[in-house]
């Protein structure tokens, strides 16, 4: 029975997908005598929390809330943020039982909400459909639990494991798959590429949905992109651009860069350092689009969780660019886990995790 109502809360939570960054997807369902009285969801960043939406739905018949049960996918908050604490709304409404999908790993909550409810004599049950509930906010959970952004590496390759012709923009997948990738980007808070990709492809790196904080990140040790002020990422101001470089002599160039571009100097552009800096900006997830050297750097750093590969029925051969290549010597095979395979148009999509 608990599972049935929690499933309904999960479905409600999905309504906010892509619109709540950096807040989680949350759904809530109020039940009394096995009957659903109200459903709520967190629909946009900064907006009302799911619990409050469901409670407010019954504002004209508050007596219905007395002795009811609220199912909520994430532990109710107990802090004053952009919204008032949901614990207080639950207590004031006279709700008798709270069924929670998962504890909120965000340190501003993490157990405080559950404690507050129990201190007020409310019965709290934790962990119903926990795995499904955790899947709603994979990146959010990862970020707060591991204290670094979730990283997915994405590549489109030919049948011979190549990425592109030498120094040429090379389209491997169909327009349909390109659109799917743009939609996939919308599940992440940042896209990351190397300077070679910027110089060869001149992409805008925008996502299909642009109404949430979204970053475009460029790793450019030698500061090569600064010599090309007409690049699409400089012209398109719809999302901030962060450029990581080892070139400290950028002050003159930085003055002439558009306002949406920020340069971050690191003595050495190490993947772990880059991720620390992105984490400090509360970026919970990064979609790494290559090219070959950037992917290889992530591979060797072990700072990644998922590899998404699109295999197109094309052959490049010759001196074309190999996927994930560098001069680094390797002696062991990296095997992926939890592999899923899907056919998209004439392309095969393979997703696997590092652990
Ligand atoms: C949400 N929606 O339905 C729930 C959240 O700044 P605030 O007040 O919006 O608080 C954001 C935090 O509140 C969020 O990171 C999470 O820890 C907690 N619960 N947040 O945006 C919700 N229940
Ligand atoms: Zn809340």
UniProtKB/TrEMBL annotation:
Binding site for substrate: 185, 205, 289
EC number: 3.5.4.26, 1.1.1.193
PROSITE patterns to which the protein is assigned, alphabetical: CYT_DCMP_DEAMINASES_1, CYT_DCMP_DEAMINASES_2
Pathway(s) annotated for this protein in UniProt: Cofactor biosynthesis; riboflavin biosynthesis; 5-amino-6-(D-ribitylamino)uracil from GTP: step 2/4; Cofactor biosynthesis; riboflavin biosynthesis; 5-amino-6-(D-ribitylamino)uracil from GTP: step 3/4
Reactions that this protein is recorded to catalyse: 5-amino-6-(5-phospho-D-ribitylamino)uracil + NADP(+) = 5-amino-6-(5-phospho-D-ribosylamino)uracil + NADPH + H(+); 2,5-diamino-6-hydroxy-4-(5-phosphoribosylamino)-pyrimidine + H2O + H(+) = 5-amino-6-(5-phospho-D-ribosylamino)uracil + NH4(+)
Residue positions binding Zn(2+): 49, 77, 86
Cofactor(s) the protein needs: Zn(2+)
Gene Ontology terms for molecular function: 5-amino-6-(5-phosphoribosylamino)uracil reductase activity; diaminohydroxyphosphoribosylaminopyrimidine deaminase activity; zinc ion binding
Sequence ranges assigned to domain CMP/dCMP-type deaminase in this UniProt record: 1-125
Active-site residues (renumbered): 51 (proton donor)
Chain sites annotated for binding NADP(+): 156, 197, 201, 291-297
Pfam families per the UniProt record, alphabetical: dCMP_cyt_deam_1 (PF00383), RibD_C (PF01872)
Protein keywords: Hydrolase, Metal-binding, Multifunctional enzyme, NADP, Oxidoreductase, Riboflavin biosynthesis, Zinc
InterPro entries for this protein: APOBEC/CMP_deaminase_Zn-bd, CMP_dCMP_dom, Cytidine_deaminase-like, DHFR-like_dom_sf, Eubact_RibD, RibDG_C, Riboflavin_Biosynth_HTPR
CDD domains, per the entry: Riboflavin_deaminase-reductase (cd01284)
Note on how the cofactor is bound: Binds 1 zinc ion.
Record GO biological process: riboflavin biosynthetic process
Family note: In the N-terminal section; belongs to the cytidine and deoxycytidylate deaminase family. In the C-terminal section; belongs to the HTP reductase family.
NCBIfam families: eubact_ribD
Function: Converts 2,5-diamino-6-(ribosylamino)-4(3h)-pyrimidinone 5'-phosphate into 5-amino-6-(ribosylamino)-2,4(1h,3h)-pyrimidinedione 5'-phosphate.
Protein name in UniProt: Riboflavin biosynthesis protein RibD
Organism: Enterococcus thailandicus
């Amino acid at each position: 029975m608990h599972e049935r109502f929690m499933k309904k809360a999960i479905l409600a939570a999905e309504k906010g997908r892509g619109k709540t960054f950096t807040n989680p997807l949350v759904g809530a369902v109020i039940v009394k005598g096995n009957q659903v009285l109200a459903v709520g969801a967190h629909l946009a960043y900064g907006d009302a929390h799911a619990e409050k939406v469901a409670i407010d739905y019954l504002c004209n018949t508050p007596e219905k809330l007395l002795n009811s049960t609220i199912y909520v996918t994430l532990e109710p908050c107990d802090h004053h943020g952009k919204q008032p604490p949901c614990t207080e709304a639950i207590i004031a409404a006279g709700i008798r039982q709270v069924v929670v999908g998962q504890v909120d790993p965000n340190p501003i909550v993490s157990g405080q909400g559950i404690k507050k409810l129990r201190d007020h004599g409310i019965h709290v049950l934790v962990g119903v459909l926990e795995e499904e509930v955790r899947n709603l906010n994979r990146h959010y959970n990862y970020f707060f639990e591991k204290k670094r952004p979730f990283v997915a590496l994405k590549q489109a390759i030919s049948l011979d494991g190549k990425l592109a012709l030498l120094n040429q923009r090379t389209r491997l997948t169909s327009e349909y798959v390109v659109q799917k990738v743009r939609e996939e980007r919308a599940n992440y808070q940042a896209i990351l590429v190397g300077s070679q990709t910027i110089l060869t492809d001149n992409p805008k790196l925008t996502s299909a949905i642009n109404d949430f904080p979204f970053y475009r990140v460029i790793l450019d040790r030698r500061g090569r992109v600064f010599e090309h002020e007409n690049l699409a990422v400089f012209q398109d101001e719809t999302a901030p651009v962060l450029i990581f470089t080892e070139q400290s002599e950028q002050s003159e160039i930085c003055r002439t860069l558009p306002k949406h571009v920020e340069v971050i100097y690191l003595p050495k552009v190490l993947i772990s350092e880059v991720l620390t800096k992105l984490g400090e900006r509360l970026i919970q997830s990064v979609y790494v689009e290559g090219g070959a050297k950037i992917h290889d750097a992530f591979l060797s750093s072990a700072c990644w969780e998922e590899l998404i590969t699109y295999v197109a029925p094309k052959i490049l051969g010759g001196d074309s660019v190999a996927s994930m290549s560098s001069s680094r010597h390797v002696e062991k095979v990296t095997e992926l886990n939890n592999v899923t395979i899907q056919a998209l148009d004439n392309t095969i999509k393979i997703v696997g995790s590092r652990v």
